[in-house]
Amino acid sequence: MRKGLGLILMGLVFGGMDPSEAQQKGAGAPVLHVTCNTSMAAVRIDGERVDNAHSITLKKGQQYLLSVTKPGYEPYRKTFSAAWNGGREINVVLERGIGPEEGQPWIAELEDGIKMEFMSVPVGHFMMGSSEGEDDERPVRRVEFKRPFWMAKTEVTYQQYEQFRKVKYTLEENEIKMPLGGGYPVSYVSWNEARDFCKWLTKKERRRGRLPEGYEYTLPTEAEWEYACRAGTTEAYAGNVDAMAWHKKNSIERTNLVGKKKPNAWGLYDMHGNVWEWCADEWYASYSNAPTAGSQRGDAYDEYAVDRLRMDEEGNQYRLHSPGNRVVRGGSWHYSALACRSANRYYHDQKYKLNYLGFRPVILWNPPVYKLKATTRLKEGL
Question: Do residues 336 and 249 make contact, with C-beta atoms less than 8 angstroms apart?
């Protein structure tokens, strides 16, 4: 097998525990201890996370799937039968793989020599939302990212998107037509089309052997989006809004070339303004019961339980959860600077194609695990 094809041999060494240790753990039951040549690797047995500092007792004769994964390394998977008595140690050797490396930018190759640059977003945590903003930005909560991810340096441009397919749109009466040049952010793209672009790019990079198993291009959750937008800041904007954003007062009522304003501290341009950006999430009207691990919500898995409808003080019914609507972030050329705040959120029907609505993908490291649920994020967080 050749590394150029993204396939790297990994070693598995079986060894015995000290007999006294095995006896303490119960010589009649199989006990497994997994070690790895690199720190912070995630060890799972049948998809369940195992603390690799401790041993696990198994059922005699049962089949198991062991997986060991870490960003930037080729994932390891092996099926085995717990047919031994007492203790046994498995030492898994992970090899550096192709794909994004933590702390380093990543370049995606499209067609005709056109590329997309992705910036590394570090692990960490932040306080999501704003106690001074709108009701849908509360309650403020701590969100943690246990794995790095990478976000497109700019919004997807026409030049980049049209390597996938041509933009099709119909102007409404009196609607302003946006610039269609290669360096302008693509607009008139629905949530479904933005998602399809991400799937297309994932398949293309994998076929070329540039993107190993476990990585994928996808739309960001709004937690990922806000964390990347803030870039370690805690104020309403990640810097001077006029220096960083195209908004209603400085945009000349249209989109502008990407990357011409100042970036945030993590090298991301136009996170404030220019076009609203689609996120993966379905729309919820508050953060009550929202996950704290940057996870996708809505149709991924049911962990965000709220009433769908509620009555306001005037007796009017309003919706707390709108499955047909998707979150958009960042504000745009058509909105005031206030709408470009880091914590500000809005939504649109996922079929809408508007002249102020675009997107930017992220790259996630989503290791293959046994019986992975429908979500594109692991429950314990990124």
Answer: yes
Q: What is the pLDDT of residue 23?
A: 41
By C-alpha distance, which of 54, 59, 44, 47 is closest to 21?
54
- How would residue 112 be classed by pLDDT, with cut points 50, 70 and 90? confident
State the CATH architecture for 3-93. Answer: Sandwich (2.60)
Question: CA 3 to CA 288: how far, in whole Å?
Answer: 46
Could you report the per-residue pLDDT of 221-266, keeping only the tens digit for each? 999 999 999 999 999 999 999 999 999 999 999 999 999 999 999 9
Residue 76 has a CB neighbour count (10 Å cut-off) of 21
Give the pLDDT of residue 6. Answer: 32
- Give the integer Cα–Cα distance in Å for 54 and 40: 14
Element (H, E) at 91: strand 86-93
Rounded to a whole number of angstroms, the CA Rg of the chain reads 23
Closest by CA position to 276, among listed 294, 257, 255: 255
Six-digit token string for 311:
């009555």
106-365 belongs to CATH 3.30.70.2470: no
Residue ranges per structural domain of the chain: 3-93, 106-365
Q: DSSP states of 242-272 as a string? A: HHH-B-TTTS-SS---TT-S---TTS---SS
From the centroid of its chain, how far is CA 148? 9
Q: Which tokens hold the place of 152? A: 């497109």
Cα–chain-centroid distance for residue 40? Answer: 20
Peptide linkage before 100 cis (omega within 30 of 0): no
Instruction: Check: CB of residue 294 under 8 Å from CB of residue 221.
Output: yes
**Cα 341 to the chain's mean position, in Å?**
21
What is the distance between the terminal CA atoms of the chain, rounded to a whole angstrom?
Answer: 31
What mean pLDDT is predicted for residues 286-294? 79
> Residue type for 79, please?
T
Q: For residue range 72-97, what is the model confidence (pLDDT) as tens digits?
A: 777 788 889 999 999 999 899 988 77
Structure tokens at 20: 């006294």
DSSP codes of every residue in 191-247: HHHHHHHHHHHHHHHHHTT-S-TTEEEEPPPHHHHHHHHHTT--SSSSS-HHHH-B-
From residue 338, alpha-carbon distances to 133, 247, 262, 358, 376 in Å are 10, 9, 18, 19, 32
